[in-house]
Amino acid sequence: MTQSGFDLRAAAHQEMLAEGFQPDFPPLVDQQVKALEARNGSATADGVRDLRSLLWSSIDNDTSRDLDQAEIAERVSGGIRVLIAIADVDTDVPVDSPIDRHAAYETTSVYTGVETFPMLPEQLSTDLTSLNESADRLAVVVEMVVAPDGLISSTRVFRALVRNQAQLTYNGVGPWLEGTAAPPPKVAASSDLASQLKLQDEAAQILHDERRRMGALNLDRVEFEAVVSDGEVQGINTRKKNRASELIENFMVAANGVMARALQDAKVSSIRRVVRVPERWPRIVELAARYGDMLPTQPDSGALNAFLQKRKAADPDHYADVSLAVVKLMGPGEYVLSRSGDDAPGHFALAAHDYTHSTAPNRRFADTVTQRLIKSVLGKQPCPYSDPQLDAIARNCTLKEDAARKVERVMSKRIAAVALEHRIGETFNAVVTGAGPKGVFVRVLGPPVEGMLVYGQQGADVGDRLQVKLVGADPRRGYIDFAKV
Questions:
Q1: Could you tell me what percent of the chain has a pLDDT over 70?
Q2: In this predicted structure, which of 187-191, 378-382, 415-419 has the lowest mean pLDDT?
Q3: pTM for the full model?
Q4: Average pLDDT over residues 240-256
């Protein structure tokens, strides 16, 4: 229960049901989990390299327990070799097993701020298939050499047995890499780990610079993070990117590109993650013109990123406003079937032609499917899915991702309404994030919450900056109402 007597956890469960999810695992799933837990030792398989002696480490959110990746790097003659281990979920979750059928229906873990509804049972996602510290785990490894000019070469994908030597966090590693804080305890205790992370950061920055050169968008999103204890909302924090989260982002983008090209080279169909050209490019052009910049009439990610970089340099305090507006105007991504030989649409925001989702199989079903596809290639086995099956999976993943965003958005508003109940009448700086038949929506920046503009909404459009007053906060309905000042 919250301070206002509203049960946020019950509300989250109800929202899941309303959006078509099945938040409770069926009995057959529980039976499969018990059988897996009773298994002695970790699974093994033929053709798996033993890489447990390497200094693998993972970096994730402070509260993350479903660890999908671990990384290691070494300097070689051609640049920096990077290895990214991805948790092998498929071994414990065979196709058409009860856990798989449930995951195929849900397709994603949903994070509501007060409760996580995992795609896989927590006994798997936070234990048996998670790359937990000091645990031996099967993994699919993506290997690449990052050259000083940002080009990626010598790519391979293979299976391995790994052991995460250090579970680290963005908030611990990021400030240290940025030179604004001391190293976290595990890093301070190991000069080898410190050197390893510095090398990973060097490779990630090279990848980052090359991505920007190719036109990938440098979007700086300020995210909402509820502080909840025993169901009570204690407050709202702001979560922003830092050097450590950018490190992982750059590695994951590169790994997903390597995986997509490996499947393409093997001439097998796959699921691609695409973001088509922005739905409202003319409005983005108009937004840039407001700041004195001219964008081309046809969508151009390089030109858009140059504008964003210029705004960030000119006004870093308000860059998040512009960044958020561009995110909203681009529209959501989607999953699509990519048949062998097809020319996929690509990912506009990442300026990537070949891109799949493969690095989070504990959290996203599309990634589990991609893992099965690459394992069938590595094992010279028949493809586990037909093209019609992959197409249906891609469509369902897109639908459920949209539904998950709705659940998370509603719950964010409910949590924010609880946190803001005592601040009615206060004035905030805001940016318009939505304008359509359902109304005009704004996001205030401190704390970063979204609500409806119920007075003064005439003529407002995405990207406009306003001053607004909080006039209502209703946790039960998830309503936060503002009026233009």
A1: 93
A2: 415-419
A3: 0.87
A4: 93
Alpha-carbon gap, residue 429 to 410, rounded angstroms: 22
Give domain status of residue 456, yes or no: no
- Answer yes or no: are the C-beta atoms of 411 and 419 closer than 8 Å: no
Q: Residues 281, 257: one domain?
A: no
Angle, helices 191-214/243-265, rounded to nearest 10 degrees: 70
Report percent pLDDT > 90 for the chain.
Answer: 63
Buried b (16+ CB within 10 A) or exposed e, 355-383: bbbbbbbbbbbbbbbbbbbbbbbeeeeeb
The yes-or-no verdict on residue 344 having pLDDT over 70 is no
Amino acid identity, position 215: G
Position 464 in a domain? no
224 and 139 housed in the same domain: yes
Please give the C-alpha separations between residue 75 and each of 145, 195, 330, in angstroms, as whole numbers: 9, 11, 38
Q: What is the pLDDT of residues 290-328, one digit of tens each?
A: 888 999 888 888 888 888 888 888 887 677 778 878 888
Verify that 67 and 145 share a domain, yes or no.
Answer: yes
CA 342 and chain centroid, separation: 26
Residue 410 lies in a domain: no
Q: Tell me: do 212 and 113 sit in the same domain.
A: yes
For the chain, the domain total comes to 2
- pLDDT attached to residue 87: 98
Question: Residues 118, 234: one domain?
Answer: yes
Task: Write the pLDDT tens digit of every residue in 17-55.
Answer: 999 999 999 999 999 999 998 875 555 667 799 999 999
Q: Is 97 helix (H, G, I), strand (E, B) or coil?
A: coil
Helix (H) or strand (E) holding 143: strand 136-146
Domain of residue 306 covers 276-331
Domain contains 472: no
Residues 6 or more apart whose Cβ sits within 8 Å of residue 68: 86, 87, 130, 131, 359, 360, 361, 362, 363, 367
Closest CA to 90 of 372, 366, 370: 372
| Span 195-209, average pLDDT | 97
- List all residues 6 or more positions away from 355 whose beta carbon is below 8 Å from its beta carbon: 253, 256, 257, 260, 272, 273, 274, 344, 346, 347
Residues 6 or more apart in contact with residue 126 via CB below 8 angstroms? 65, 66, 118, 132
Residue 131: the pLDDT is 97
Angle between helices 365-378 and 98-106 (to 10 degrees): 130
Give yes or no: residues 154 and 236 share one domain: yes
Place of tokens 């693998």: 56
Q: Which of 401, 420, 450 is the last residue of a domain?
A: 401
Judge if 360 and 221 occupy the same domain. yes
